[in-house]
Amino acid sequence: EAGVAQSPRYKIIEKRQSVAFWCNPISGHATLYWYQQILGQGPKLLIQFQNNGVVDDSQLPKDRFSAERLKGVDSTLKIQPAKLEDSAVYLCASSLEWGLGTEAFFGQGTRLTVV
Amino acid sequence: KQEVTQIPAALSVPEGENLVLNCSFTDSAIYNLQWFRQDPGKGLTSLLLIQSSQREQTSGRLNASLDKSSGRSTLYIAASQPGDSATYLCAVWDGGSQGNLIFGKGTKLSVKP
């Protein structure tokens, strides 16, 4: 079974530029999550999708971050404009179901450096 | 608001030792608890998922226990090896309506040959 795929693996941009990350979840997984992991911290949820609908985006900085999951499969996360404090690893995860605590599987992450 | 704490933040042991990593959470109303491993520059690998009705779960040299009433979980690693060196993260599936994972900051384990 293929795992969660993310691209790119690394990205370096200047502040105020824009950037986009892509995620392809495990086939058949209805729930998709984007997490932000700052160095030395545990991952923090940014947004959660159930199929192509948003379940929770309460911690997404909506003035600069946006995410979509078209057709309930792939997802993209965008930052525009980026700030220095956005430097982090962005992790995508998927699980079979929503709200029942089923096992979550994570991708390799995208390491973003904003200079 | 659910908070997850992991102690110690870092641990260094000689190869072959048995060790215990600790995780505590403030709200016992959780669905499940999941332990992950993270290697430097990598994503998270799921190690064990403990259902809220279970007391423990085992996989190879790993054993995780869960005591919901006291808000604690432990990850026991038997006969540690240098390849076990990584950061271990504990996360609880929050029992709120959204149901998402809330993580601790992790324990960085170093196993010396």
Chain-wise SSE layout:
The complex is a heterodimer of chains A (115) and B (113).
Chain A: E1 5-7, E2 10-13, E3 19-24, E4 31-37, E5 44-50, E6 53-56, E7 65-68, E8 75-79, E9 88-95, E10 105-106, E11 110-114
Parallel strand pairs in A: 2-11
Antiparallel strand pairs in A: 1-3, 3-8, 4-5, 4-9, 5-6, 7-8, 9-10, 9-11
Chain B: E1 4-7, E2 10-14, E3 19-25, E4 30-38, E5 44-51, E6 56-59, E7 62-67, E8 72-77, E9 86-94, E10 101-103, E11 107-112
Parallel strand pairs in B: 2-11
Antiparallel strand pairs in B: 1-3, 3-8, 4-5, 4-9, 6-7, 7-8, 9-10, 9-11
Mean pLDDT of chain B: 92
Q: Element order, helices and strands of chain B?
A: EEEEEEEEEEE
Q: Profile the largest sheet of chain B.
A: 6 strands, mixed
Q: Estimate the helix proportion of chain A, in percent.
A: under 10%
Q: Average pLDDT of chain A, to the nearest integer?
A: 93
Short précis:
The complex is a heterodimer of chains A (115) and B (113). Chain A is mostly beta strands.
